[in-house]
Amino acid sequence: MANAPNGSGGDQKTKIWQLMKKEPHRAFLAGDLARALNAKVAKKESEEKQKLVKEITGNLDELVEEGVVRMVADGLFKYRLFTNDTKFIEQAFIGGMGNTLFYFQSTIFRLNIGVLSIFFTKNQKENNWSVLVQDMTGGTSFCLRNLLTDGNYTIGSEEKEEEGYITIAGRYIEDQHVSIAIKGNDIQVEDQKTGTGSRVDLLTEEGLGQYGAAADEFIKTADPVSQWHSVNRGRYVLDQLLENKQNFETNFFGAMVDAKL
Predict the structure, then answer these.
(1) Coil, helix or strand at residue 17
(2) Topology of the domain covering 7-82
């Protein structure tokens, strides 16, 4: 969970943070927050309203700098949610949860559609992305791996061969479910206003550092064959929890190891 903002912005910034915290899956415009804070002023166009929106925009910029809020599109802001007490993995629900756009920077992230987990891992040496689809509902892991370069892609369940279209059969995936724009480490995910929505989990900058250091240590201590075994990776993660109280998610740890091998 994101920490409370510092006091430099005054009561208004704190109120903005509290409003966004109540609806963590919604993306807000400055005008949305103006109406919530002062409906009377924000009701009609006036110099007073313009002043309020400008102040709120400044407060939002400060909250972004503090790491409490994320700008997910031009002028669109969202409260930052984390999976635990650390700031290693950030979570964002999009689509059926009040907003459809999510912009971020990360070299490892996971897209969740229904029961499927789709891992995107940047290979720094090859300058491309490995996409691994996993479905554990049948008791075994169904895997489909693709390599992607920079570009625009649509993920859906339609059976068609089309440039930029990735077909993934699965429950809860609509014909055109999610669009992803990749440019370097800049990622924009857009849910196509689906009923079930989508979720993005990403390794934050702090998370990339922590998981990267753990993966380096694992690679250094494990023999070349066992480095690829998921059981050995899982044991290493468990050891880190039991011995060092470091709680790494196994799948994200495995993705980080893959990125380094």
Answers:
(1) helix
(2) Arc Repressor Mutant, subunit A (1.10.10)
- pLDDT tens digits for 92-143? 999 876 689 999 999 999 999 988 888 999 987 888 898 888 776 665 555 5
| First and final C-alpha spacing in the chain | 32
List pLDDT tens digits, range 198-211.
Answer: 999 999 999 999 99
Question: How many Å apart are CA 162 and CA 139, to the nearest integer?
Answer: 31
47-65 pLDDT, tens digit each: 888 888 999 999 999 999 9
The residues, any chain, with a CB within 8 Å of residue 227's CB and separated by 6 or more, are: 218, 219, 257, 261
Are 235 and 226 a contacting pair, CB within 8 Å? no
Tell me the torsion sign for CA atoms 46, 47, 50, 52.
Answer: negative
Domain ranges of the chain: 7-82, 91-198, 205-260
